[in-house]
Amino acid sequence: VSLGSTAGSMGRLEGKVIVLTAAAQGIGRASALAFAREGAKVIATDINESKLQDLEEYPGIQTRVLDVTKKKQIDQFANEVERVDVLFNVAGFVHHGTILDCEEKDWDFSMNLNVHSMYLMIKAFLPKMLAQKSGNITNMSSVASSIKGVENRCVYSATKAAVIGLTKSVAADFIQQGIRCNCVCPALSSFQNRQKTGRFATAEEVALLCVFLASDE
Questions:
Q1: Looking at the chain, which terminus has fewer C-beta neighbours within 10 angstroms, N or C?
Q2: Quick check: is 4 in a domain?
Q3: First to last CA, the chain
């Protein structure tokens, strides 16, 4: 994908500052590129420095190495960002197995990365949005959550159900102060045979939904 000289020409996100996690690959990377194409100033973060650096070549994107499980790193990063219009929490890990396959260390790791990281990021950036009296938070959840019970995704589903609950709570608490909070719930590959299109949405197509949520539309 090349942003070329047309970056920002459509301008749906013109002037917005967007912070996102897990931007080095997958939906996070596709979203970073889609945000930049629509004129946003994108601060793309990831723990993987080598993959993250590839985004630097695209206009409108700057990168920051960030471990979203480390509060000190997040707080320092937030202090360096003067304004944020959109926070997109993407970072997560898919553990495979039933509850019997999930050791305590697996449970703790998944909860820490998939849920606690969003708690830390929102706590760090929400005060900036409240001071601006506007802001927009999008969290990455999944169909495997409180939406549907999925085989061999016990702890993953538990974390993504928690993300839905977190999202609804933040939305309810701060909507009257100009803050929107939503989550995106893509499906897993095991659902493919149920899709009438015969395939899933690509990362780029999911990114377009995230562009809509990031916009004022």
A1: C
A2: no
A3: 25
Q: What is the pTM of this model?
A: 0.88
**Tens digits of per-residue pLDDT, 166-187?**
999 999 999 999 999 999 999 8
Tally the domains of the chain.
Answer: 1
Which tokens go with 143?
A: 């169909």
Catalytic residue set: 156
> Which residue type, as a one-letter code, is found at position 99?
I
Tokens of 16: 């917005």
Q: CA-CA distance, 128 to 135, in Å (whole number)?
A: 8
**Pairing relationship of beta strands 61-65 and 41-46 according to DSSP bridges:** parallel
Is residue 1 in a domain?
Answer: no
199: three-class secondary structure by DSSP: coil
Q: How many CA atoms lie within 13 A of 97 on its CB side?
A: 11
What CATH number does the domain containing 29 carry? 3.40.50.720
